[in-house]
Specification:
Length: about 325
């Protein structure tokens, strides 16, 4: 099979007939063999009934229904487990992504050797309250991930080589950072394509301002797990050691200062009356806690079933 199109959705009953018809038309015009996997993320507006109705007229349509709303990451990860196409295309169900982009995305994956192509909606039809925070998050993600050639990590329209989606796990709200997850998994051939952003035709957006806070926390999580997931002691141990040594040095300095004052008969303050004493105390306690945290995390990591699971690209 050439292409699997994965569409996570939540209360998008109005757009589904037009979207699936559009995708099918593009596929037939380009003679692609394909499947459309619609993942109903706990919709309550009749989306699942619409999916079953559409499937009666198009055997290429497949549906997955969640018992409740789990989120976009869960929908994508579940679909990735069952896709059969050599190239996997993900897109949103709100008709803001154009299926006309699919042939070029497919060509770049199959002919140019990319592992992943991420869409970039250079011209957006979103309010400034959404575009400005998005640009800030994208800039922060580029800096932390080292993927300098992507402008929009969160664009729903992406294309993947099949073995990419079969070797990554998307959870929580990590769908925003799939290119970063792919890079940590060893898939470094990541490209970008300018795509059309269409104004929403039906319904309203399902994402509020809280997604920006969650997005920042997820970015920190994925950066830490990707860099220190198999060696947490390197992070916590280093931070704990630095903090402990800082407190120890301050403590020694306070003691030496008092002994020097006593030796010369000069006036001195009690150690407990000095602010530096409490700074040193906090640094030593914090350092000890960080070191112990790293020690426990290392024990957990070494006991994990995936402690020696690595991405093997090819064997001969």
């Amino acid at each position: 099979m050439d292409i699997s199109v994965v569409v996570p959705l939540y209360d998008e009953v109005e757009s589904l007939p037009e979207l699936t018809s559009w995708i099918s038309r593009v596929m037939d015009e380009n003679s692609f063999s394909y499947e459309i996997i619609l993942v109903d993320d706990g919709s309550k507006d009749g989306s699942w009934e619409m999916i079953k109705k559409l499937q009666l007229n198009n055997s290429n349509i497949k549906g997955i229904k969640f018992r409740r709303n789990y989120g976009k990451s869960a929908a994508l990860n579940t679909a990735f487990e069952v896709v059969k196409g050599d190239v996997v295309i993900t897109m949103d169900a709100d008709l803001q992504d154009s299926p006309d982009e699919i042939p070029e995305l497919y060509r770049r994956i199959t002919e140019e050797g990319y592992d992943l192509i991420s869409g970039w909606k250079a011209k957006r039809y979103d309010p400034i309250t959404k575009t400005v925070p998005t640009k800030l998050f994208n800039a922060a993600t580029r800096k932390m991930s080292g993927i300098d050639n992507l402008h929009d990590f969160n664009c729903g329209l992406k294309a993947y080589r099949k073995n990419v989606v079969k070797n990554i796990e998307v959870y929580g709200e990590m769908h925003r950072y799939i290119p970063v997850i792919a890079k940590w998994a060893g898939f470094t051939r990541i490209g970008e394509q300018v795509v059309e952003h269409r104004a929403r035709k039906y319904g309203k957006t399902k994402f509020g301002m809280s997604r920006f806070v969650n997005g920042f926390l997820d970015l920190l999580s994925i950066f830490f797990v990707g860099k220190f997931g198999k060696r947490p002691m390197h992070f916590f141990g280093m931070m704990g050691t630095l903090s402990f040594l800082t407190g120890l040095i301050i403590t020694i300095w306070i003691i030496v200062d008092k002994l020097t004052a006593l030796a010369h008969g000069a006036k001195y303050r009690d150690i407990t009356a000095q602010p530096l004493f409490y700074i040193a105390l906090v640094a030593i306690i914090l350092g000890s806690q960080l070191f112990l945290t790293g020690f426990v995390a290392e024990l957990v990591a070494r006991s994990a079933s995936e402690r020696n699971k690595y991405q093997v690209e090819e064997t001969i």
